[in-house]
Automatic annotation (TrEMBL):
Keyword Lipid biosynthesis attributed: no
Chain residue ranges for the region called Disordered: 306-341
Domain of life: Eukaryota
Lineage, highest ranks first: Eukaryota, Fungi, Dikarya, Basidiomycota, Agaricomycotina
Name of the protein: Uncharacterized protein
Transmembrane segments: 25-47, 59-78, 113-134, 146-163, 198-217, 238-256, 276-296
Organism in which the protein naturally occurs: Collybiopsis confluens
This protein's UniProt keywords: Membrane, Transmembrane, Transmembrane helix
Biased composition range(s): Low complexity: 330-340
C-alpha cells in the first residue's frame, strides 16, 4: 500500500489517538482493580451488617453501590471496546484504504459509544454526590438548614443533566467533538447544560467537604477545650479525618478534570494527561462514595458494640442513673441530643465523645 504525505500526517494523528486510548485503558484498569478490592470489602461488610438489625445497611446504600459499580464497569468496557474497534477498523480491515477514510469510518461507527459514555458520566456524578450529601447531612442532624446550599447545587446538577438528556434526544445526539469533555456531545445548548451539571456537581463536593472539615474542627475544638492536645484521637475523629482526606483527593481529581473542560486548548502531552485523569475520575466517581460507605460501615461495628455495652450497663444499673449518650452543646450547638435513625453511627459517636468530655470536665 502506497503512503502519501497526507496519509503520513493522518498516521501521526492515528498514532497519538492510540497512545491516548491505551493510556486510558491502562490507568482505568488499574483503578478499576483498586475499586474491585474496595467493593469486595464493602460486600463483606454489608453481609455482616445485614445479620444485625442495629447495623443493617439502608437499601438505598446497597442500590447506589451496585449502580456506581456497574457504571464504572461500563466506563472501562467502553474504553476497551473503543480501542479494539479502532484497531480493527484502522489497522486490520481494508489495508488498501486511505488512513483518513478509515479514521472517519472509525469516528462514525463509534459515535454511539461516545454519547453513551457521556450521558452515563453526567448522571454518575450527581448519583455519587447523593452519597456525599447523605454523609454530610448525617453530621448536621441538629442544624439541617445549613444543608440547603449543597441540596440546591445537587438538585441543580440533576436538573441540568436531565435537561441535557432531553436536549440531546431533540438534536439526535449531534456530536461536536470526539474528545471526552463537558460540551463535546450535543448542540450548544446541550453543552451548556453539560457544563452546568458538572459545575454544580463540583460545587456540591466543595461545599460538603468544607462542611465536614468545619464539623471536624468544631468537634476537635470542643475536645481540646477540656482534654490535653496530646490525647489520642477518638474513633469519631479518625473517621472524620478519613472523610476529609478522601474528599480532598477527590476534589483534586475534580480540579484536574476541570482544566480542559473550562479551557479546551490543550497540547498533545496535556491531552494525554487529561485523558488519564478522565479515566481515573470515571472510576473515582464510584470509588469515592464507596470509600465513604466503607469507612463508616467499618466503624459502626465498634459503635454498635459500645452501644450494646451501654445498654447492658443501663439495664443492670440503679433507677435514675443515665447511661445514654447525650452531649452538651458545643459553641454552635450542633451536637446536642442523640442521633436519629437516619444514620446513628458517626453522629452518636461524636455525641458520645462530647458527653464523655463533659463528664470529665464536671
Amino acid at each position: 500500500m502506497s503512503t502519501t504525505s497526507t496519509d503520513r500526517e493522518v498516521l501521526v494523528d492515528v498514532g497519538n489517538d492510540f497512545v491516548v486510548k491505551v493510556a486510558r485503558v491502562v490507568f482505568g484498569a488499574l483503578f478499576y482493580g483498586i475499586y474491585l478490592i474496595l467493593t469486595y470489602f464493602l460486600v463483606v461488610l454489608f453481609i455482616r451488617r445485614a445479620r444485625n438489625p442495629k447495623t443493617k445497611p439502608p437499601i438505598y446504600l446497597v442500590l447506589v453501590t451496585i449502580i456506581l459499580f456497574l457504571g464504572s464497569t461500563a466506563f472501562l468496557s467502553f474504553d476497551i471496546a473503543d480501542l479494539v474497534a479502532r484497531m480493527n477498523i484502522i489497522l486490520i480491515h481494508h489495508p488498501d484504504e486511505a488512513y483518513q477514510a478509515k479514521l472517519d469510518e472509525a469516528d462514525d461507527r463509534l459515535k454511539r459509544l461516545v454519547w453513551t459514555g457521556e450521558i452515563l458520566f453526567i448522571f454518575m456524578l450527581p448519583l455519587g454526590d447523593t452519597v456525599v450529601f447523605w454523609r454530610t447531612l448525617a453530621l448536621f442532624q441538629e442544624n439541617k438548614k445549613i444543608m440547603i446550599i449543597p441540596f440546591v447545587t445537587l438538585f441543580g446538577s440533576i436538573v441540568a443533566a436531565l435537561y441535557e438528556l432531553g436536549c440531546d434526544l431533540k438534536t439526535h445526539w449531534a456530536i461536536n467533538s470526539l474528545t471526552p469533555s463537558a460540551g463535546s456531545v450535543g448542540a450548544l445548548s446541550c453543552s451548556h447544560a453539560d457544563l452546568s451539571s458538572y459545575t454544580l456537581s463540583f460545587a456540591t463536593n466543595i461545599i460538603c467537604t468544607c462542611l465536614i472539615v468545619f464539623r471536624a474542627w468544631e468537634h476537635r475544638k470542643f475536645m481540646n477545650q477540656y482534654l490535653e492536645k496530646s490525647r489520642r484521637r477518638s474513633p469519631a475523629e479518625r473517621v472524620l479525618t478519613l472523610l476529609i482526606e478522601s474528599g480532598g483527593v477527590y476534589l483534586l481529581l475534580y480540579i484536574l478534570q476541570s482544566v480542559p473542560i473550562y479551557d479546551k486548548t490543550l497540547s498533545e502531552p496535556a491531552s494525554i494527561a487529561f485523558n488519564i485523569i478522565n479515566a481515573i475520575i470515571q472510576q473515582g466517581m464510584g470509588m469515592y462514595p464507596t470509600a465513604i460507605i466503607v469507612i463508616v460501615q467499618m466503624q459502626r461495628t465498634f459503635w454498635a458494640d459500645s452501644e450494646d455495652g451501654d445498654s447492658r450497663q443501663t439495664n443492670n444499673s440503679k433507677p435514675g442513673m443515665l447511661f445514654a449518650p447525650r452531649a452538651q452543646s458545643t459553641t454552635l450547638g450542633t451536637t446536642t441530643g442523640t442521633a436519629t435513625d437516619f444514620e446513628p453511627g458517626l453522629y452518636s459517636a461524636i455525641a458520645r465523645d462530647d458527653t464523655n468530655v463533659s463528664k470529665k470536665a464536671t
